[in-house]
Structure formats: structure tokens, C-alpha cells
Amino acid sequence: MCALDASAHDSSSSATSTLPSIEVTSKRQDNSAPANPVSSTSGSPDAPENEPVTSASQKNVSGEEVNARLFSRPAEALEVVPGLMITQHSGEGKANQYFLRGFNLDHGTDLAISVDGMPVNMRTHGHGQGYADLNFLIPELIGSVNIKKGPYFADEGDFASVGAVHVNLIDSIAKSTLSTSIGSFGYRRMLGITSTKAGDGTLLIAGEASTYNGPWDNPDKVRKLNSVVRYTQGTADNGFSLTGMAYSNSWNSTDQIPLRAITSGQIGLYGALDPTDGGRSNRFSISGQLRKTEAEGTTKLNFYVVRSSLDLYNNFTYFLNEAAPGFDPNAPLLGDQFHQRDSRVIGGLNASHTFNHTFAGLPMQTEVGIQNRYDSIRVGLSNTVQRQFVSGTREDKVQEGSTGLFIQNTVHWTSWLRTIVGYRGDFYATNVDSLLTPANSGKATSSIGSPKASIVFGPFAKTEFFINAGEGFHSNDARGVTIKVSPTDPSEAVSPSPFLVKTRGAEVGIRTRIIPGLDSSLSLFMLDSASEILFVGDAGDTEPSRPSRRYGIEWTNHYQPTPWLAFDGDIAVTHARFRGTNPDQATAYADLAGYPEAQIGNAPGNYIPGAPNMVASAGVRIGERTGWFGALRYRYFGPRPLTEDGAFVSPATGLLNGQVGYRFENGWRVQLDAFNLTDSKSDQITYAYGSFLKTDALFAQCRSANPPPAAVCATGVMDRVLHPVEPFALRLTVAGQF
């Protein structure tokens, strides 16, 4: 276990006048059977293996272990994070939906993700704050993953309150690799990776092309291209890397559909209500990292420039707008499709230095750092029909910059006790130019301070104990910070949202290797979020929510009794509730009295919609580096309340995936992956909200000469809205090394 090795090193160093560099490496299962054994090195200058583990839930995972797991889409590679569930409710080019520690993180809010030192989360994004699209990631290039949870780390800032996941890339491969995959529902994938010596360094080149239709009545028609060029020189301790990436994707999407449309026979389980939904996405980046290590300390520097764009067409409420108060009942039905556009350039520069020194004879490390980011954004929202422009809702130019300063001190008091105390301060500034509604233009600034503290006891009998506490934050959409009036009705005043929202968390945990071959950790955690007012990209305005509290327990295990057999099992149970009352909801419930199809799910309550109460996974792997290998993995996504009163609850989803294959001594591999072995018909993701179909009786009433109250027609018919699990599917991969 990483932290145990570090503590043993600390013990031997406690009497020296200068604290030597502590190297903590993730355990690599060299004898086990990775699903894709790309022989590689991960010597990137900011490789997370060098970070000491300071909480029970922190973890470093090798790229081999990541690729030994079964996953059907790139982002699912991050399910190596214990308790993290990743799913999709739309086409395969849209960012995934993330769930962790009782949070429905939407597309990334409060889960900070980085690749090669570049932040993936997009702030002030057209579709949602913290939007984290990982479709540009090639999983076979993952060298290591550093996992952190909770606001206890001074070097973690925006979006990292619930967790932070840092993905590092490999630098080279022993032999060039070419693989091809074919599978159910039009799945096709080609991947090539090669590396060669170039001057004093190594040049790595990778390219990927894939297509996919899915089981949908309206095929996804995914067309994705990916490429990576990476030059590295030196080692993980003293070296640098320079990486360029390019990604392009286009797709159709079958979004979530209301249950009543399926039960009535209007559409099938895999049908679509608006077959013109879909999108296009592009991403181009260049990033660099530098690391220099000496006896006195370590210096780290990284920069990045990202150019990205997204065009997204969605229709979640179908014909709700056609029954809105004041709508002409004689007008043709156009539907509720809308177009979200996001185009931006991001630049960032981060630097830190760790000093190795002593105080009163005690060895310690002090890290100081600065993190800078600037986004130049053009973002818009408009109404469309079959992807054709009808009217504009918002069009904004946004300049947003931030600077974070942090300091973190680690003191090794004894061979079995160390403390980590840190503090970070963040400053944000924005300038919003609202082109369609000038009243919503403005400038804003905000700052926030976040103290952190941790205590580590041990090792005692290969066991360590951790206590962690700290504060964190996430930023809100800049458009919601400067907003003054509704973009759809300028006569209606709208309250702005706070720029930065504070979170507070605490955790106690234990990690042990007392049983030979078993790595086990147990964490008890709590996280409070302050009152938030979130910008809703789908509507162009703000939506309030109350303070919340989540507490729970996580248990993580990895057991390898023999070189050819490995087990892992994780379970996370969380209690999530709003705090306080919601008087606006009570008022809305009273307004809808007498119309049960509209009022259900609007009664007052403290459930947090979409918050999972249990997430679990278990897997087994057999095989060695040559010969037969196989794996089974089960994922359980527990039921979730979908409305604050709990009137709607999602079903639980359990998926069983399997794999079998053969590795030849010459490096060739044949592999068959099977997804949803039991052919489950459960929901991949579920919501509950109001909408209108043409066939709804209430829809006809709202468009009649004597409509119900405006609140009823504005709410629509409450229903469970779902995106089904994809049925049983097979994928065959043939890969060779040259």
C-alpha cells in the first residue's frame, strides 16, 4: 500500500537533518492479467505516483489496472475510482453523467478531472457548470490515475469538493501496437500506438477512429476521430513532456423518454421522440509539464492551451412550451428542441515548489504553489426545430479568469505520526457581455479561502489511520452571477447567484494490508454544501437550491491470493438530504391542487433528486501475461429519489459484464467483451419532471379555449423519464505488436 511504504521511509529519515525525497509508487500487478497489456512507461514529470497518500480514500492506480477492467465508453475507465458511477443519458459524444458520494454530479460539477495536467471541467459552459467531456481520452494511453476525495487537499481547487481525478499518460511503448474491434450495433474501432527515440527523448504517436450506432431506433451514427502526439525527455523526477491532442466527433442522440410514451405504445424502449437531437464536438490542445528534483526540494511547472467547441441539440420536454401561458393555440406545433453552443479558448499556467527542510529537528516538507486559468468563451442558447434556428434566448461573450495560491506543510513528528496542514486562497473575476439582453451584462469578482488539515497515524501492523477535514468550493456560471432579468421575459427580475460556493467536509478512515494479498480501506465521510443558486444552461436563467448534507461510508478491497487470480469489491452507502424548508415548493404544490398528473412530485420534502444511496461493484480476473485470461464485473447502481418528496424513485440497476481472451507469446491478443450479460431492461439513468406529449389529455386542455391555471400548464405531466440500459452486446478485439 502506497502510504505504508511512505511511512516506513519517513521512519528511517526522522533523524537526518534534511528530509529526503519520499517516493510513493502505486502497486502494479505485474503477474496479473491486464485486459490490454500495452507495455509502457509513465515517466511524465507530474506523475501522481510521487504523491504521498494522506487519506484512506486516496488511491493511485496504474494504467495496466485501469485497462484490465471492462468498460464500454472512455469515461468509464474512471470507475477505478471506488464508488464512482459513470453513465450516459444521451448520444455518445456528450459528456457523461457522474455520481459519487451521494452526489448527482451532472456532467462534472464538484468532480475535478484533469488529463495530462489539463483541466477537463468547463466553467460557464453552454450545457452545464463543470461540464467534463472525456470522449477525447484514449484509455490505452493512461499511465496512471491519482484519486482524491473530499476538500482536504490544498492543491485542489474549483470543482474538487467531492473528488479529484488526475489522469497521466504513458510516455512510450515497447512495441508498436495496432488493434481493431468490431461489435454489436455497428461498433467499429481502429487504434494504433507507436513510439520511437527522437533526439534525447521519446516521441509517442497514437490515433483512433470509431463508429457506433447503438440499439436505438434512430441510430447514433457516432463518427469519432482522436489523435495524440507526445514528446518526453528525462524521468518522472527530472524531465519534461510536451503533448498535442486533436479530437472530433458527431452524433445523433436518443435522449431520455417519458415512461408513459413507452407504456402507451407510442414508441418502443429504444425509441426517440425527437430524432433530430444530437451534436458535434471538437477539441484541440497542447500541454507541457516540467519537473526538477534535488535534495532540497522539487519544482513542478505545467501549462496548457485548449480550443474546444460544442453544438448540442436537445428536446427534454417535447411540447411543454406549446402549452405555456400566452402561447397561440392555433400556431403549428414546433416542439421544445433547443440548441446550446459553446466555443472557447482556455489557457493555464501552474507552478509549485516543495521544500525539504527541518524544524526543531523534525523533518518536514512545505509546498507552495500558484494556479492560473483564463477562459475566453462564446456561449449561446436558442430555440430550434429539427436543428434549424427559430429564435434566440441568450448569446454571451464571457471572459473569466482565476488565480489560486496554496501552501501545504507536512511534519513527520515520529515514525508513526505525521500532520498535513494547508490553506488555499482563490480569486475569480469575470466580464459578461450579454448580446441579446444587455441588462444581464456586467462584471464581477469574488474570493474565497479554504483551510485544510489531516493527521496520519501508523503504520501499526501494516495499518494506518487517517483523520481529514477541510473546506472547498465550486464556482457558478458567470452568467448567473451578473444576471438581472429573465432572458425570456426582461420584465421579470431574477436574483443573481454567488460566484463561489463553499463546501465543508470531514473524513476518518483506515487502510490495511495486515492480511497477505489484501489491500483494504474503510472511510466514514461527511460533506456540507452551502446554499446554492445554480445557472441552468437548458433554460438560460438561475434555479435556487437549499443547503445540503451528505454522510456515508465507503469500503474498498483488492485481493490477489495468487499471481493469476485477483478480486476487487467496493461499496459506498450515503445518506443525502437538503437542510431547511422550501417554501416556494409548498406554494407551487398548492397552486397545482386538483391536477394530480401535474402536482405529483412537487410536494415539500428534503430528498435530493438523483442522489444515489448505494453504489457497489465487484470483479474477478484470472490469467497471466500469456495464455487464456478472463474477467467478470458486476456494477450496482442503487435506487435514487427523483423528486424532493420522494414520490418518484428510480429503479436499481445491476449490470454484469464479462471478458475472455487469449494472449500469444509474440504479443498478439484476441479478446471478446460481453456487456449486460443478463440483458437487463433497467434504466441507465432516470429523472422525474413535467413534460407534454401530443397525446396527453392535459395538453389538449391547456391549448383549449378554457385552459387550467397557468401553473398547471407550465408544469406539464409529471412522469418518470428514463434512458434505458443498452441490451446484451459483444465486442471482438484483435491486437498485435510489431
Task: List the SSEs and their pairings.
Layout: H1 2-13, E1 40-41, E2 59-62, H2 63-67, E3 85-87, E4 97-100, E5 103-104, E6 111-115, E7 118-119, E8 121-122, E9 131-132, E10 142-149, E11 163-169, E12 172-173, E13 177-183, E14 187-198, E15 201-212, E16 222-234, E17 239-252, E18 257-258, H3 259-263, E19 278-294, E20 297-314, E21 338-359, E22 362-385, E23 388-414, E24 417-434, E25 442-457, E26 463-475, H4 478-482, E27 500-512, E28 518-529, E29 532-536, E30 541-545, E31 548-562, E32 565-578, H5 583-591, H6 596-599, E33 614-623, E34 627-637, E35 653-663, E36 669-675, E37 683-691, H7 697-702, H8 710-715, E38 717-724, E39 729-737
Notes on the structure:
Helix content is 7%, strand content 52%. With 738 residues, the protein is mainly beta. The strands form seven sheets. It has a 22-stranded antiparallel barrel.
> Main beta sheet, described?
22 strands, antiparallel, barrel
Shape: globular
From the alpha carbons, calculate the radius of gyration and give it in angstroms. 26 Å
Helix content: under 10%
Oligomer: single chain
Low-confidence stretches: 1-37, 42-50
The average pLDDT value, as a whole number, equals: 90
Q: Beta-strand percentage?
A: over 45%
Number of helices: 8
Distance between the termini: 35 Å
Helix and strand composition category? mainly beta
In a nutshell, what does this entry contain?
By secondary structure, this protein is mainly beta. Mean pLDDT is 90; it is low at 1-37 and 42-50.
Question: What attributes does this structure have?
Answer:
disordered N terminus, 52% strand, mainly beta, five-stranded mixed sheet, 22-stranded antiparallel beta barrel, single chain
